Amino acid sequence: MLSDRTSLLALACLTLVRLAPAAELRVNFKADGNSLNDAVAVAVPLDTSHSPEASQPPQATVDQIDKEFVPHVTVVSVGTLVNFPNKDQIRHQVYSFSPAMRFELPLYAGIPAKPLLLDRSGVVTLGCNIHDWMTGYIFVAESPWFAKSGADGVAAIEALPAGRYRLVVWHPRQNDVSSESSHEFTLLEDSKVAENIVLTLKPDFRPRRVPLGGGGGYR
Ligand SMILES: [Cu+2]
What are residue 2's phi and psi, to 5 degrees? Predict the structure, then answer.
C-alpha cells in the first residue's frame, strides 16, 4: 500500500516536472543583410493563466560609464525598479520625456538614493542634460518573457510556458511600427521555435561627442 502511494507521489512529481516550462523562442534579427544587435523581442502571453507572481519587484541597472549609458538598450518588465549609478568622476543629469516615464534626476554623482519604478509599458528614452550625445533606451515590456539580441542578432527567450503568444519586437532605430512588428504564434510544450525578423533602420541620429579635451563646456 505504502509503495503504491510512493509511486503515485513519484508519478505526480514527474508530471509536475513535465509541466515545467521548457519551450524556447529564438528570434533572429537582421537589418540590411547583417545581424542586428540591441533588438528587443517580447513574448506577450495571450492565455492569461500563467503569469509568474514575483514576490520582490525585479531590479535593473543602467550605468553611466565614460559619458555613455551602459547598456545602450535595456529591457525590463513593468514593475521593475531601475538604478542609474554614475560610475564617472563627473556629474550627470539623467532625464526622460517619454510618456512611459517622465523624470529628471538632479545633477548627481554616485548612486541616486532611490531607484525608479517603471510601472508603464513603452519605450523610455534616456538623455543627459550635460552631455547631448548620451542616449539610452529602456524598453518596458508588458510581459516577463523578453530578450535582447547580441552581436549575432539572436534574442532567445527561454523557459516559456506552452501557450499562445504575441511576439512584439523593437529596435531604437526601427523604421516602421507596423503590424509586421507584432504577430501571434503558439508554443507547444518542450518546443523550440525560431522566428526571423528583418527590420529596416533609420539613420543613426545620435549627436556626435565633442572631441576629447576640447569640450570645455561639457565637463
Ligand atoms: Cu552626462
Answer: -60, -40
CATH of region 55-142, choose from 2.40.10.120, 2.60.40.420, 3.40.50.720, 3.40.50.300 = 2.60.40.420
pLDDT, tens digit (0-9, with 9 covering 90-100), for 169-195: 999 999 866 545 568 889 998 899 999
Tell me if the bond preceding 203 is cis, omega within 30° of 0. no
- Of residues 207 and 119, more confidence is placed in 119
Class of domain 20-51+161-209: mainly beta
**Ligand 1 center–CA 127 separation, angstroms:** 8
**Contact indicator for 102, 92 with CB cutoff of 8 Å:** no
Centre of ligand 1 to C-alpha 49, Å, is 43
20-51+161-209 and 55-142: identical CATH topology? yes
CB-based contact 60:136 (threshold 8 Å): no
For the chain, the C-alpha Rg in angstroms (whole number) is 21
Residue 122 alpha carbon to ligand 1 centre in Å: 23
| Centre of ligand 1 from the C-alpha of residue 106, in Å | 11
How far does the centroid of ligand 1 lie from the alpha carbon of residue 12, in Å? Answer: 56
Ligand 1: distance of its center to the CA of 90 in Å? 8
CA of 146 to the centre of ligand 1 (A): 29
Phi, psi (deg, nearest 5) at residue 211 = -60, 145
